[in-house]
Amino acid sequence: MRYLGVKIVDGEEMTLGAYNKYRGWTIPKDENPADDGFLVVYVDGYESWCPKKQFERSNQPLNALTFGHAIEAAKRGCKIARKKWNGKDMFVVYMPPLMLPPYDTADTNRKVNDRTAKFIGEDQPLNCQPYFAMFNAQKEWIPGWLASQSDMLDDDWYILEDE
Fold first, then answer.
1. What is the pTM of this model?
2. In this model, does residue 163 exceed pLDDT 60?
3. b vs e for 121-134, b when ≥16 Cβ sit within 10 Å of the residue's Cβ?
4. 126: which strand partners?
5. Beta strands per DSSP E along the chain
6. How far is CA 150 from CA 4, 67, 156, in A?
7. Where do the structural domains in the chain lie, given as residue ranges?
């Protein structure tokens, strides 16, 4: 079976010999210590070495993502944006499903608000399906954001890192 992996890793250019020295290992005689590659560090702390060609084929810099990779990052909780967008501080987020009890519930926990109950009924629970929302340049929240053709085809997506 074949798999398509999507992950966020840190990569540092490092020869195979330098990696073996870093790990405190003796390099096997049948391996070339001058082979170019990357030290790969996963978010859980796992470390490995990957040959340069395979690393560059399998990993994209976080500031030059395809739309598909950006969507996967958003589904994992990241804020995503495009370099070509004119508006400053614009981003898109994935809003996961939301289930709330009805407005008329006696419970004091979070429930359907009166604005929503006006349209769905006070005795109706809310079953909100996932969607994408944009925070635009005017600092407005736009639920139900849809990508344009250029959004989907350009590879200039990036992940906004919280500062």
1. 0.75
2. no
3. eeebebeeeeebeb
4. 100
5. 9-13, 37-42, 47-51, 79-82, 91-95, 98-100, 126-128, 131-135, 141-143, 157-160
6. 24, 10, 10
7. 9-58, 67-160
